[in-house]
């Protein structure tokens, strides 16, 4: 007996383990049939999971925490059953901005602190000349993309009042850059590579350089449904992990990249996937889809809560920290807790979470001047 | 009749559906309806209009842009899924089925919101029916074309009349429990292979 599992996903490289699990039949081996349905927005995924239209969803890891804590205005408690990889975002800017930054850069342009200081100089100059604020796009209010962009800027002392943050759907990133509606962005793959290949963007830094081993997407289930039938999320987690294990064998690497590229379509090549996974024998990985990267830990969930709170999107309390921690189902062999070497020493540790929160917190800003609606 | 003119924005790439919805809203007395079709730079353009309600099709990736806007504005606006309490789950489900979502400024009377959402749902559904009918008509046309082409192939191969060719195809279709159009497509495919 195989049980169908309706899974909503965004067409991103880190949905790859779902494609591979379905293509190679690891879902069947765990008694499931992955019924994969592409979506166009994280909001749709969140709502359709909350309403039971999907059984599970490829979800931004911070959204699981935000929904569980009711930060979105309504409580939709979710759990992360398995990670769909680690890291994978990158920061890219429009070529004209990259040129301005290069002129001002002092040091190695591959160092995020160097580019961030160069950006700070560009932002300051634009302020003096009373030019419009630079605009940077991320993908969702509760996203590592959002937090990574801000951490990068803080590395160089960028005046955040002189930069406007906005959300742009990933498929529109390149076009928005070309049209001058945004000047840079943080997005997951394949959108950095596609924008670069189209001549629309220069990739500055994979975010692994800022926050190594940062949880990125998880396979989320509704907390009540998962609690009632624990075996279902566990079986799905095993299928995902088996797909990752299979992809690790040298003889399967090629097929793995092919299956991921095929699942995505739209001009994504197996070579593009191999590059970001570091499986082309040349590049360091920016996105981890290996078996170890699929194991979750409560520390990762707590880390995400700290990122959310550092952005003043959540009250700070032991109770919230505790509830966040419970939102990820821990597995053996979870990777080390995330870190942000520029902001604090060593991997994130539970006992120090308030110190890390202080280190990552933005300085208090005045009243937001943006008017929306 | 609305007590105050609500500023309503429709974000939708489909001009036909947009027209159907806009007309419906106008008939219901809403005069301040703006349509944003292009998907770029949505945040700035929406901010300039400062709407009370945004109606957006669920397939539109810009839903995530609206999610960000409502955060910045200090939770003054919420998607209808959040606005509605649990007693409105039927409304939410109907909206999702129809493929429309609404972002609504806090403080609007619930009935007003409900009326607009209900209207949007019925207009979206009307559009979906239209599209189905269109697809059906197009399908019929394509079927007829395939049947004509297959008929020609059979006539030529067997040197028989049009009526005989058609009768033959109909007989095969009946025996196999298939549509004539399906048989016609098989004949065309086979002819391609045997070329």
Automatic annotation (TrEMBL), chain A:
SUPFAM superfamilies in alphabetical order: Periplasmic binding protein-like II
Pfam family, one: NMT1_2
Organism superkingdom: Bacteria
Name assigned to this protein: ABC transporter substrate-binding protein
Organism lineage: Bacteria, Pseudomonadati, Pseudomonadota, Alphaproteobacteria, Hyphomicrobiales
